[in-house]
Amino acid sequence: MTTRHQDLLDKSLQCIHLARAINDRYEDPTKMTTQEVGQRKSLLVEAARLKELAEAQKAQDDLETWASKPDGDGQVLAGIAAMGEAKAVQSGGTDPMSQANSRIAVQRFAKAMRSGKQSLTLEEKAALVEDATGEILVPHDIATPIFKDLPHLAIFRSANPLIRPTTSDKVDVRSLTAGTAAWGKLEVLGTGSGTATGRDATPGTTTADVISVHDLVGLAKIGVDELQDTDFNLVSLVQTVVGELFAQLEDDAFGNGTGTSQPWGIAMRATQASPLITQAVTGTNATPTGDGLRSMQYRMPARLRPGGAYFASTDAAEGISLLKDTTSNYLWVPSMRVGDPDTLWGKPFYILEWLPAMATSAAAVDASVLFANLNAGYAVVDRQQITMQRLDELFAADGVVGFLFKLRVGGDVIRPKAFVKYLL
Asked: What are phi and psi for residue 333, nearest 5 degrees?
């Protein structure tokens, strides 16, 4: 397989993953937004185009191989059959043949986990998809449940930030925020690299910003006995362990990340790094009050307010949970159903452990409570694929095998006006 053929296959597979990710977010397809319908259609068209180019490249490679080794056509034909099987898996079809191929892909992935790639036959290796560094792409049937579970395992994703699927390493914030409108005549500004209208900036005054995609790497250690378990149990174990690892690291980074090799956190954008969240309510003596919390909603533009929710550090949440009205009823209302957030004045309320604790000094400097519309104000950039690398020797003495699972994700505040901070 040539590098060009593999590159085309990888790009086509990425488009298919992104299209499936959009589709999988909706149990009822009729609720899919017009923008997402168009995006999914464009991804599938591009995937088909790349698939045709890959097939043409593969045909040329096979003919050149046959011409140079006329007696070796048996292995070439076996490789073609295996690649056709892998393509059926990538297409995500629902016909019986595709379902059977999906099962085969999972079985071969499980075999690669148990014994390493060296244990696979030529046909089995051809059916696995690897990235440019040689790491195995986790099959769609295993990766998709992990992405589906992340909003339930991770607090931040459950609060409905803007999810932006991408096949690139960077997303220009202007593509998400830099729209302009006017009555009558619209004055069009220059479009040089030094102008931008995103992030609530004054047009033409800031440099263009991008959201970078970073490697989120989780190490899972699986005992040799568990590796010999059934494919179903092994896959379930991978989904559980990897989902929990990614959810914890994501929440930490989305909350307090520094932007260096990790996403930008909302706590950093609230007090330290530009674009800075400036809308604020200032408290005293590290004590949140009902009036202060209620006022936060009205520091946000009215059009963003309906989608707002409260986010608080653990100690601030404890103080808020004890606030009462004049009739001794608690303002904070606990959720009555698993999976639903608590509420404060009818707005969702989330406890985020990575937000800074309330200041111990008299000066109110820490953004321990935020009122935010995450869907309008924060973008999570997903590459929508997971890779796996097996570590055979590193943990052999402990009777376990290490597996590095890599997810590519980024995140940053895109509209500071969608946030209000309560300094405590």
From this structure: -115, 115
Q: What pLDDT is recorded for position 271?
A: 82
Whether the full predicted model's pTM is greater than 0.85, yes or no, is no
In the chain, domain spans = 3-146, 150-173+209-424
Give the Cα separation of 55 and 44 in Å (integer): 16
Please give the full DSSP string across 253-312, using - where no structure is assigned: HHHH-BSSSSPBPHHHHHHTSSSPP--EEE-BTTB--HHHHHHHGGGS-TTTGGG-EEEE
Does the pLDDT of residue 241 top 70, yes or no?
A: yes
User: 65-75, pLDDT tens digit by residue?
Assistant: 666 554 444 44
Of 126-135, 240-249, 252-261, 367-376, the least confident: 126-135
Going by their DSSP bridges, the two strands 378-391 and 210-212 should be labelled as unpaired
- DSSP per-residue letters across 9-76: HHHHHHHHHHHHHHHHT-SSGGGS-HHHHHHHHHHHHHHHHHHHHHHHHHHHHHHHHHHH-GGGHHHH
Tokens of 68: 């140079």
